[in-house]
Amino acid sequence: MAGIKERIIKEVEKLPEDKIAEVYDFIHLFRIGIESQKKTVKDKRQEALKLFGIWKNMSSKETAVLDDIRSRRQRTFRERIL
């Protein structure tokens, strides 16, 4: 990994002074974008974990509704195949 960093530094050193700011802006925005993506993934993971285990201790009415949904989906799927 250090090899590619050294090559990048050498290339940047060869640039005219007035272009180095543009390269910095590009690299900075690229890094910020990567960090933002990581944060988004982490936030989504945390949001999903909040729902972990919500199916435990459901009332009989809630269970009946889910069973009905499951049954309807199975019937629909079977009709499409046949």
Classify the beta-strand content into a percent band. under 5%
Mean pLDDT: 86
- Beta strands, count: 0
The best one-word shape is elongated
Percentage of helical residues? Answer: over 70%
Report the span from N to C terminus: 56 Å
Integer-rounded radius of gyration: 27 Å
SSE class: mainly alpha
Structural domain tally: 1
- Please summarize the sheet with the most strands: none
Helix segment count? Answer: 3
Characteristic terms for this protein:
82 residues, mainly alpha
Please describe what this structure looks like.
The structure is a single chain. The protein is elongated and about 70 Å long. It is 83% helix and 0% strand. The chain has one domain (2-81). The longest helix is centred in the middle third of the chain and has 34 residues, at 17-50. The termini are far apart. It has helices spanning 2-13, 17-50, 60-81. With 82 residues, it is mostly helical.
Summarize the model shown.
The protein is mainly α and 82 residues long.
Q: Can you lay out the helices and strands and say which pair or pack?
A:
Layout: H1 2-13, H2 17-50, H3 60-81
